[in-house]
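SAMPLE LOG
Freezer: B-3
Tube label: C17
Construct: single chain, 278 aa
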Amino acid sequence: MLHIGCHLSVSQGFEAMGKNALGIGADTFAFFTRNPRGGAAKEIDGADVQALRALCAEYSFAPLVAHAPYTLNVCSADEGIRDFAVRTLCDDLMRMEALPGNYYNFHPGSHTGQGAETGIALIASALTRALPLAEHTTVLLETMAGKGSEIGRNFEELRAVIDAVGDWNSRLGVCLDTCHVHDGGFDIAGNLDAVLDEFDRVIGLARLRAVHLNDSLNVRGSRKDRHAKIGEGEIGLEALCAVINHPALRGLPFILETPNELSGYKSEIALLRSRYRE
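STRUCTURE (predicted):
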């Protein structure tokens, strides 16, 4: 079965997100835990959360993929920014306990001139503080395009973070973003098997828990991270259909982050379902 959805707004409420997902043909979705640019999170309505949990069980939803705010940077050179990011990360993971069994995805961060080794150590330090709070949540490190000083531009950097976390890394997974890895130089359009073999060699496919399914406005290796609608970018429809049909990826939640409104996501979901081979 193809498990696919898109980002929905948490401001409308948890049950409403589930109903909107069903309305566009989705059986999973992503949501920001708070404003994607940062800020305080809304108080959780227990009855609303329970209604979503019941809906997800009734319709056999795949795991949901919560997303940290874009502004979080746990490896910034600025101690104040780091401290705020770690406190937010911990708060988010405590809040995720209301939705057990789901995923929390975040961008590892940018080392802002300190060097990748220092950045990786700071990310691992933040996760070592936060992961004990993720009793029923798997935290996903996202593959990045490699803009500026981003950590996660290759699989080796994510592996280094996982290893540095030590005893708590059983609660860590990875979310593979097709636009990011393409822009980072991986040939997912021309040789998807090789990319997944490399992922398996470095990280292990058992840690791959979700896929952000996006086309890219840029040529491979651009390191620019500009998403495009499915089939309207440099990756192309056929290559993205190969992603959803790859045996190593079946069963994972696929989250669309293409530049769309709900009607556009509904069309993309219908298109991809029509190309999925049961």
